[in-house]
Amino acid sequence: LMVFRGEEEHSESRLVPLRHPIVHQIMQEKRSVLTRNVSEEESVDGTPASVQLAVPIVQEGEITGLITLETQQNVEINREDIAFVERLADRAAVAIKNAKLYEAIHAANKAKSDFISLVAHELRVPMTSIKGYTDLMNAGLAGPLSDQQKQFLEVIRRNLTRMSSLISDLSDINHIESGRMRFDLKPFDLREVVADVADSLRERITTREQTLHIDIEDELPLVFADSTRIAQVISNLMSNANKYTPEGGEITVRAWPNGRSAYVSIQDNGLGISEEDQQKLFTQFFRAEDKAVREQPGWGLGLSIVRRMVEAQDGEITFESKLGAGSTFTFTIPLAKMEGSG
């Protein structure tokens, strides 16, 4: 219940029982009520008033509150004044509805966050056990293995890796959305990060007989970001290039300074992305319907995480792509400030 008495600085909100005369009347008549010579019992705050105007706040046909104006001054309130307050009541109804929706969304997001945290924890425990026993068997500690048994264990290992990747991606999304992801921002050499990521993916690139080119300008200074998260961004983009580029294709990683930022691009001559799919590319769980894309393992979370991580570190990410001709993803990160610079 919103109560306004006299000047604006005296406005306040308060709860008023349904048995109060004006509240009871409004609930019965479901319309605005103008009363003169208001007694202490009729007044909302127990102070006699010359005029009282009460206007219902209606949401989906139900009265959820009142806007009440009371004054001890002898003033005339006409139909235009009442209509103005009724418009305010309509806006108040919308504002209240939006506030309730926001609270509901916030509660739903918290429930989702708690659920993902629980699932991630509950899945990691048995997966760790499965991986441990798989490693023991691969090491021959449970006896000699046949070729078929080795193949079965390799299938288990690959699927454990996929599940671990999914859990990590879900946890990252969860931490970013809830504001719980922390970034260790400090200067570092981008060359070292690119080299480490390239080494970690070298076997996969070689297996597909792809050629990897790395071109980092010599004058590139240190960057200022979280080196672990930037490595994750580069790894994700290079992994996509590896997955969606046919055997014998080329992947090129470039880095160069421009103004106060470092630019990093990952280019391939792979499948490319249709114009329709480009509109949804950074949407969570989105995967193109292209058969060649669907044949590759994935959950549709990687690019969403990449964009959020880049933007959380004051960077931007863009891309250019043409179906059948490949894609180029480019992101920026701030350069580290040099000593003595402003």
Name its key features.
single chain, 5-stranded mixed beta sheet, elongated, 342 residues, Heat Shock Protein 90, alpha+beta, 12 strands, Helix Hairpins
In short:
This protein has 342 residues and is of the alpha+beta class. Helix content is 45%, strand content 23%.
3D structure, described in words:
The chain contains eight helices and twelve strands. The chain is an alpha+beta fold and 342 residues long. The protein folds into three domains: 2-77, no CATH class; 106-177, Helix Hairpins (Orthogonal Bundle), CATH 1.10.287; 186-334, Heat Shock Protein 90 (2-Layer Sandwich), CATH 3.30.565.10. The strands form three sheets. The protein has a five-stranded mixed beta sheet with strand order 2-1-5-4-3, with helices on both faces. A hairpin with a 3-residue loop joins strand 11 (317-322) and strand 12 (326-334). The model is unreliable at 1-9 (pLDDT under 50).
> What separation lies between the terminal Cα atoms?
53 Å
Tally of discrete structural domains: 3
Q: Compute the gyration radius: what is it? A: 32 Å
The description of the largest β-sheet is: 5 strands, mixed
Q: Would you count the extended β strands for me?
A: 12
Low-confidence stretches: 1-9
The spatial strand order of the largest sheet comes to 2-1-5-4-3
Strand content: 15-25%
Choose one word for the global shape.
elongated
CATH superfamily (homologous) name of the largest domain: Histidine kinase-like ATPase, C-terminal domain
The structure class reads alpha+beta
Secondary structure: helix percent: 40-55%
